[in-house]
User: What shape does this take?
Amino acid sequence: MCGRFTIVFDAETLLNRFDIEDIPFDWREIYNVAPGQKIPAIIENKEERRIGQLKWGLVPFWSKDEKIGYKMINAKSETIQEKPAFRNLFTRKRCIIPADGFYEWKKVGKDKQPMRIMMKTGEPFAFAGLYDTWTSPEGEKLHSCTIITTKPNEVVADIHDRMPVILKKQDEQLWLDREKFDADLLQSLLVPYDHDQMRAYPVATIVGNPKNDQPECIQEIADPSL
Assistant: This one.
């Protein structure tokens, strides 16, 4: 699964990298993004990209209440066209979630060592996601999302049995295009990212607590397994 990630780059980098005109909320760097938080997500409408904040943890429009969201932070790519919560969203409600790294916990003896996985270049990238809008009994709307996962590449396989789908930059436009739908083509994008372009390194155990959101979360530490 993907349960924590990082967004450590400034607003100008976001605008340039993801071809966005403006940000309608106060942008800030986040060192320890956790489920249940509002996260930035990008959609496309009439060939124009827009960014907004969605609650991480999908609440389908047909849900009785929003508690289901904590169980739906991820969607498995292998079953995305079968599960009732995801199959309709796959056709029309696809989004990308900007990030520059994610955390997974590696088993080291009896302990678990948090690892941060990122591009070797340090550049931002995009998770493939789905989104939906749920309306409460009181009429309040909740916009939420889920991050799609796939089998791990060689960098992640030593740490965890799943990894988030990271789209190639040239495939982001295809994923966002709501006017064109080719299920087989879109499904072909949901694969492990090229391991040669990624690296993983150990970080402090403070990332285990989502209240810790500071630069120390991403600082590399000595590998305890050595």
